[in-house]
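QUALITY CONTROL LOG
STEP: pairwise intake check
CHECKER ROLE: data steward
CRITERIA: each record must contain a sequence immediately followed by its structure tokens, with no blank fields

ENTRY 1 OF 2
RESULT FIELD BELOW
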Amino acid sequence: MLQKAPLILKFRDAPLAVDQSLLNIDRQECEESLYDFLSRAWDKIDPSSFTHGWPIEAIAEHLQAVVDGQIKRLVINIPPRMGKSTITSVCFPAWTWAQPHDSPTSGPGVQFLHASYAKDLALRDSVKCRRLLDSQWYRQRWGDKFSITSDQNTKTRFDNTRGGSRLSTSVGSQLTGEGGNIIVVDDPNAAQEAFSEATIETTIEWWDNALSTRLNDQKNGAFVVIQQRLSEQDLTGHILEKDVGEWCHLMLPMRYEKGRSFQTVIGWDDPRSEEGELLWPDRMGEREVRILEKQLGPWGAAGQLQQRPEPKGGGIIKRDWWQLWDREKFPPIEYVIASLDTAYTTKTENDFSAMTVWGVFTEAEGQKAMATRVFGREGYAELVEERKYKEEHPKAIMMHAWQERMEFHDLMVKVAETMKEYKVDKLLIENKSAGPSLIQEIRRIYNHLPFVVEEVDVNRYANISMDKVSRAHAVVPLFAGGLIYAPDRSWSDMVITQCSVFPRAKHDDLVDTVTMALQYMRKTGLILRGEEWTATIEEDMLFTGNRNNESLYPA
């Protein structure tokens, strides 16, 4: 057999002799998945053995979608010690540069900008990435695609001969003149500073005013943010709250929570099915997770492990009190109520206006929803009377929710569109901020629509003065009694999360709509606790004459 001549391969601007036999590799390896690349590159960057697992594969799939142009805004939440930095900040750039197809987010010409809350962490991953590129394994396969330039090859930044680069920086640093095709923010908030208002404000200001303008190609470039949740005001919370730019949210809690699992834009969903099932038992088993939960405490575990931060002092309305409606369609709805909290005044124009839409239903066997709809207060007696002897007492399901910052006219249009779409019977508007003015305008412009608008004084209920916290406590029996349902939707998770962290939440606009709607339904007899419902029926059987539809017990 003839001996093959050595191939001269250029790398780092210097000739490198490599045995041709080592390059006898199927060139399709250039197109291997990021997950496969990670598994084979692991021992070049980490002394521990590689552990296969679907969570890291899920991250890889979504990062691939970024390179393919399917996702341009990606936020990933995953517990610590799951290899997120290795795949996102070390392997991701190296794999992207090895791709055979060139585009703004694919091939050796891609410019990366990586940031972390600490410069040392950013540099650590930069060095690992550089070592991977310099490894014999990588050079044998993709070294002919590019070389690392000798005039720009430092820990902070290195460039390649095809125009690609990897720049490392830290949160809050100056970025004048710098940018990237793909901008990756890995751990923007430090765990030990999760509740530091000054640090949080600095991070958000840097994101909004500096990093948001650093994409080289605003149309085709991409942002990737990956972190463990630390507080509702961390960067993930800020991004999801603003909801600008169609973000894809990949959330991977340590213990599976069926009510919070939903499909991402690329069709991926959590493969787990059992409540409480661990994320990656081969990497962190039950014993390790229990120890970590005790060390972190309930609030730390809620954020860093479950990716649903709940600040200390929150939790009047518990997350697990919400009943999951897991069917494809809503139940037959008997009555629809919308609850609106307005925020637009000269002093609160930066706050949210928020709305939740609620349907009242029963699930008694053989019972049908009312054939005719009722409107206004006078209809409640008829509705309650019709349902009194059904096998099950009524419940409420959240049908839709939104919160937005908007001008008065836009708010009015948004409200009217929601009313028409969900066939709302009654609209409740709190008598504060723009509420009274909005009521007048809706009655004037939309008086042809079949719904009633009612002004509500939420500060008084059953002739008792109530603050926000008291109102939340007043509806707790409805939740604890299993009467309140919500579907598996991202907007419902937004409401449930805000309720679960109240009264320590950054915003409480949606909470106000929830308590206003449920108080109203309870007050008018549309929904009652089991004891109240039974007592109402027994009272009706014992007495004749006028019936009082008020709740048996004031909240």
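ENTRY 2 OF 2
RESULT FIELD BELOW
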Amino acid sequence: MANRLVALWAVILMVAGVRVEAAADPEVFLADAESMPGFLPLYWHSDSGDLHADIGGLDGPLIYYTGLSQGVGSNDLGLDRGRLGDTHLVLFERVGSKVLLKALNTRYVARSESVAERAAVAEAFAQSVLWGFEVAAEGDGQLIIDLTDFVQRDAMTLGRWLKAQGEGSYRVEPSRSVVHLPKTRSFPDNTEIDALLTYTGEPQGKLLATVAPDASAVTVHSHHSFVRPPDNGYEPIAYDPRAGFIEDGEATLVYDYASPIEAPIKSAYARRHRLKKADPTKPLSPAVEPIVYYVDPGVPEPIRGALIEGASWWNQAFEAAGYQDAFQVRLLPEGADPMDVRYNVIQWVHRSTRGWSYGASIRDPRTQEIIKGHVTLGSLRVRQDYLIAEGLLAPYDEDPQIDRLKAFALARIRQLSAHEVGHTLGLAHNFAASTQDRASVMDYPHPLVTIDSNGEIDVTDAYDEGIGDWDERAILWGYQDFPPEADSDAGRAAIMADTLAAGFEFVADEHAR
């Protein structure tokens, strides 16, 4: 009787369309798929447009972040090409026929050897399951899941953002959204997935109509990166509010419930790239692996040369800290994707109106180690600077002074490039620098305009060249590589004491705005 009931129940489930069979054999399931070996092996089914991944080889957490590889083009909306989304430390967790993608809570922790202490904190605070996958195929160490719906969702919450900006209610239209194969690739330590998404809705605002051919159907590209976490060779350093490094308040604070009673429960790490000397005992040494930034090849000349030159100024600061050619700037290789985590990039972004430039980064949530610097420079800025120069020089007689106007604008662009790259190195604004003989490119530089002996306006020294003295002190504090036998905490304390004794001042955003 029991066997009959089981058989009857199986028939009912089959009729209802519920899967009762075991997961398919990977060899059969993937027979016609295009394979992309790498960190997260991918399989593309061209007939159906489905993308699968093999997570069977993963044995721990990984870093996951999102972004926009193609944007909307409105400065007021802020949905730019290259905009970065959230970064999470995630874990794929198998539960029966499901696989959960779980974002781990890295803000509330117990840095303790005690398993019980760590468990008590982990169980006290929420985690976030970002997605649930069905196991599509399994066998011989492979565990195949379908990524298609996951990467075609509104990962950047554009629908919510557009509604908040008064543009109307928009959502992803599945029939007009696909995986974008040309920018979907897998490498040994990272996997990059791109999706073309079309958001449909009834336009209510005025902004989308200025940048989209049809404001009721707005198509962008969403990007997803899965990254192997850095190894344990990085040494995080405690954030010091005097040092000139970025501090995001609650965004980067960690609450350690295993800290001693007499110690603060809250702490933060300074964000910085990993940089080590090949020989830390030498005053000047090459780096084991230099920091390399890549400039968007879409930048036209002579602006491209100005961006490269301005960003390259930072090598002066690293040389002052004892590194030889540790900071380099190159042109992004042909075929490389600016969203790829392997490239620190200076990206050239067009908008319908002039807007801000930004220096952002992707970081390991556990240590604040920067694994990708990502600069966004608005292309209309150089044109505004040209107009500022025109307003100052009023070249409305027979001599249009085009060369002087361009020189003014390009000098400002060099400063802008250095400034935004500085943010991606971990540095905050220093609004005291303009009062200390242009001590930092991390200030907002006002043009120095003087009157020459003929009573004419002179802008030849409108903007400084090179890194400032404060910048060198900040890089020295954050990136100094001390010899193995040295006490690095004491060394940084000495650097800070010398900086303060020299009279340098630091005014960050939270003190100035």
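INTAKE CHECK: passed for both entries
DESCRIPTIVE NOTE, ENTRY 2: The radius of gyration is 26 Å.
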